[in-house]
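Q: I'm writing a short explainer about MHD domain-containing protein for a general audience and would like to include a description of its predicted shape. Could you first generate the structure from this sequence?
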Amino acid sequence: MCHTAFRTPFRPGEVLKGRGAMIHSLFLINTSGDIFLEKHWKSVISRSVCDYFFEAQEKAADVENVPPVIPTPHHYLINIYREKIFFVSVIQTEVPPLFVIEFLHRVAEMIQDYFGDCSETTIKDNVVIVYELLEEMLDNGFPLATESNILKELIKPPTILRSMVNTITGSSNVGDTLPTGQLSTVPWRRAGVKYTNNEAYFDVVEEIDAILDKSGTTVFAEIQGVIDACVKLSGMPDLTLSFMNPRLLDDVSFHPCVRFKRWEAERVLSFIPPDGNFRLLSYHVNAQNLVAIPVYVKQNISFFESGSSGRLDITVGPKQTMGKPVESVIVTVHMPKVVLSANLATAQGNYTYDPVTKVLVWDIGKINPQKLPNLRGSLSLQSGAPKPEENPSLVLQFKIQQLAISGLKVNRLEMFGEKYKPFKGVKYLTKAGKFQVRT
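A: Of course. Here's the predicted structure. Afterward I'll give you a sentence or two in plain language.
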């Protein structure tokens, strides 16, 4: 999962304030430690600089604990982890780390937007276009074109037909003309946009991170939220989006299109939108706002002093979901090394236990509130092995459609500057981020 805690909006004026701010090189590294793509904007920096990154990676308990900023004798390495890929940038002077982190997220999102996913295979299959994109996104180490709709005019997204023609003719996907967005007074929106059906849809997506103790009490809880937009409107529409309870939003980071002073004064989002898909804002709701926990877990995992066995009993149920069903529920338990096998029974879903990795996965699906899902049975341990010193934690995944767990609600969307009436829609989704239950 990728959190928005590091995210900050890209504003060209702010970029220029970073004296000598420059991204020198970019390395893409997979989880096996292979550098499968590198791009340099000045002179070539040796791959050996990544050894400092590999050292930090070895010290980290897992991939998400690798420090985002790693100092080396002559450089800084600033990295993010997305879709099982480390995006590692090399910086030669001190720059605001958020400036670089935001750019790396933009690179990952652009690859996702162009090719449908951001995997190593996809990048390798489209390596020429990826290089073309990186060349346009950064000019001499400074961010230049980072908006999807502008880039798509500069570099046409791949299609099977275009790929075949390019192979035969030796031509590239780079356009011959300057994009109309560069000629527009609004740099993130191309001029002369026309649609038969004018639509504006917004997705409010919230990830809840939580740690619950054995009794179900909340030890830690916070919400990372985003509002993603898909706007296909003709002309130059000017939109305002208002909320029923805007005070909920804390630590907010906006797309550059948002008029910040209007938000500060009225708590209303006023903006001329980019064309197509974009992230309007990301936000944070912390425990001081009393984050509601949408599920509860009753569990008992015990290991017996005598004999080589243990018991497991887990029940999952909905809580504070406003009547919305809890779906795609998966419970994962990392068992102690002495657990050889699990003999369990469940009335709902199915479970697997891998005796090599010691991971128990219970795939529940959708919770039926009338008959709560339960998993129970016995655990077999190595004979003669001491009783495990501590019980394993449970990690939960789930989704709740049409619910923002923070209580955030869009009040209305209004459009000015154009005469037609657009189709409008808002969808809500809550899902588990790092959701852990201690036993």
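A: For your explainer, you could say: The first strand starts at residue 23 and ends at 30.
Q: Perfect, that's easy to follow.
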